[in-house]
């Protein structure tokens, strides 16, 4: 389904088709990472679960480091349709990798939608979800506008924007590597530090984006 939506994006005859193709692609993105993280945590010893989840996130952050700036560069250099065609090609390679190498795992006990939704009765789950929703909203709302911000406010051209997006990915990889080393039994204090730091970075982005040498640093820290 992800491959199909990427092909539809590459061939979209108008904006409406492109928009819906991207929405459908995003709908596939969420369950893929949810399933991948569960599988990763199941195939390693309990002491390695945090590292396994960090490794899955590592794939995402490395793709941000390499794929996003490279895609933006290709889009500026040639045509945005080529970017989506390339994503569809990478999707095919990934699908073949899953078919050939990922073990077929079955749940130990069948689950149901009612049982899944029952978890929302737990306050701690709701708090954890709220932290994730608002934290990610802050980062990715800003990230959505990073390219026009760097272009229109900072005054960067394609090279400066590509470098800044690359730095965002570098920061993601480094942060992910560090988080994977944290003790899974004591995550509250690091989480508080991360959220406080994120608040400062986002609050000062308006100021730092006007200074060419400081804008990429802010993107890296973000």
Structure commentary:
The protein has 222 residues and is mainly alpha-helical. The chain is built from ten helices and no strands. The protein has helices at residues 2-11, 15-42, 49-77, 80-101, 113-117, 123-144, 146-154, 158-180, 188-208, 215-221. The model has no long low-confidence stretch (mean pLDDT 86).
Question: Main traits of this protein?
Answer:
mainly alpha; 222 residues; 10 helices
Major beta-sheet overview: none
In terms of DSSP E residues, the strand content is under 5%
Order of helices and strands: HHHHHHHHHH
The coarse overall form would be globular
State the distance separating the first and last CA atoms.
31 Å
Q: Mean pLDDT, rounded to whole units? A: 86
Task: Give the helix tally.
Answer: 10
Determine the structural class based on helices, strands and strand pairing.
Answer: mainly alpha
Q: Unreliable segments (pLDDT under 50, ≥5 consecutive)?
A: none
- Range of helix content: over 70%
Number of extended strands? 0
Measured on Cα atoms, how large is the radius of gyration? 19 Å
Question: Can you lay out the helices and strands and say which pair or pack?
Answer:
Elements lengths: L1 H10 L3 H28 L6 H29 L2 H22 L11 H5 L5 H22 L1 H9 L3 H23 L7 H21 L6 H7 L1
């Amino acid at each position: 389904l992800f491959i199909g939506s990427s092909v539809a994006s590459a061939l979209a005859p108008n904006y409406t088709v492109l928009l819906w193709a991207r929405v459908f692609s995003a709908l596939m993105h969420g369950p893929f990472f949810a399933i991948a993280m569960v599988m990763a945590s199941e195939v390693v010893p309990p002491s390695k679960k945090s590292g396994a989840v960090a490794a899955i996130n590592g794939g995402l952050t490395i793709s941000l480091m390499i794929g996003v700036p490279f895609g933006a560069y290709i889009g500026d250099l040639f045509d945005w349709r080529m970017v989506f065609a390339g994503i569809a090609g990478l999707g095919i390679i990934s699908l073949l990798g899953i078919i050939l190498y990922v073990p077929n795992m079955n749940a130990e006990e069948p689950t149901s939608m009612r049982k899944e939704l029952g978890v929302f009765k737990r306050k701690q789950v709701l708090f954890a979800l709220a932290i994730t929703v608002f934290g990610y909203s802050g980062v990715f709302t800003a990230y959505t506008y990073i390219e026009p911000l760097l272009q229109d406010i900072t005054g960067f051209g394609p090279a400066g924007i590509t470098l800044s997006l690359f730095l965002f990915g570098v920061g993601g990889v480094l942060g992910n590597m560090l988080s994977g080393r944290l003790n899974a039994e004591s995550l509250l204090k690091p989480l508080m530090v991360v959220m406080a730091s994120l608040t400062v970075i986002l609050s000062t982005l308006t100021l730092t984006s006007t200074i060419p040498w400081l804008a990429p640093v802010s993107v890296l820290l973000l």
